[in-house]
Amino acid sequence: MTTAYNSDLLRVLDERGYVHQVTDSKGLDALAAGQTVPGYIGFDATAPSLHVGSLVQIMMLRRLQQTGHKPIVVMGGGTTKIGDPSGKDESRKMLTSDDIDNNIAGIRTVFERLLDFGDGPNDAIMINNDEWLSSLGYIDMLRDVGPHFTVNRMLTFDSVKLRLDREQPLTFLEFNYMILQAYDFLELARRHGCRLQMGGSDQWGNIINGLELGRRMEGHELYGLTTPLLTTADGAKMGKTASGAVWLNKDKLPSYDFWQYWRNVDDRDVGRFLKLFTDLPLDEIARLEALEGAAINDAKIVLADEVTKLIRGEDASINARATAEQTFVGDGKGEDLPTLDIPVEGLRVGAICTALGFTKSNGEAKRKVAEGAVKIDDVVVTDPGQLITAQDGADLRLSLGKKRHAILRKEAP
Length: 413
What we know:
It contains 18 helices and 15 strands. With 413 residues, the chain is of the alpha/beta class. The chain has a six-stranded mixed sheet, with helices on both faces. Strands 9-15-14-11-12 form a five-stranded mixed sheet, covered by helices on one side. Helix 13 packs antiparallel against helix 14 (282-289) and helix 13 (270-277) runs parallel beside helix 15 (296-312). The protein is globular and about 70 Å long. The N and C termini lie far apart (63 Å).
């Protein structure tokens, strides 16, 4: 049952299942009903692409803009140099400034598909928090911001407490992360009139820190909103599969594999994912969610089509679906399948599986072959050392289980 809100912002977020906690729902509702609210979410630039686990946050910024408000995408060029300890058992590796800049450039491409950027009142903007964090003087930071934090309270936050409970090391560098994130909120309020920070439920403590810092130092009235922890119906973490992360950028994951991820979701997740990750009207989602038996597969195809269209573009969605139909109904060699060029001297099956990313190691490939899970043109492979050559330029299809397929082609001379 949803709460009755006056603002389109909270009504839409609530109806579609984004809302877990709000610091002051009545205050935020009144604010959003009466004026344009700038709101932000921060994303660390630890890789050249975000993965599906970040998609609910990106879609929240889209909903913010769709309901007339201003999305602020904060890229953590500064905080990435430290690393968010939330949900981590170990420290992240240090990245160079060039690495971080390249990652931000890669990540931006997804936001440009989903948000309208510009100079208008509700146009999105992307900001790198390195702009202000790298220029902070350490002593000035300690004097101005430090008194508003107590170590006693910082030790109670899940991002710190869970790491210590597991007896995993937490560096002093990482311990500072929550202070810098709180400072981001203060700086965004100063520079852009930002009133709202959103994030996953694991960011609740960091968000509270930020709005309290803004209130104590400058009297800002700020708000926070978090989404539920997103897991699949079987309890798995969203965006993770046995073969690795489901990346949003096409250079990190072929569009066919991205489409297949959504096509293969659990029946129980279809309605929830349609609300979170597509723009389909709620009455249409209700119709699709009510489908039963084999008909639920039609809803999954709609989900895969719609999400792929949003993230990869309409052509990618059409091609991925056509490839799926050809793979399972036609000759099994759809054009959008991932491909691997086979050199003249050939490659062994185990090495092929690993080169395609279907297995993480040759040892895992051997186990999959022993299980009878690997096929070449629907013929079960029994020897992981079998040498595969592209004969006379003909394409071969390698399959791992029922859902992972690739085309093996003769390497061009």
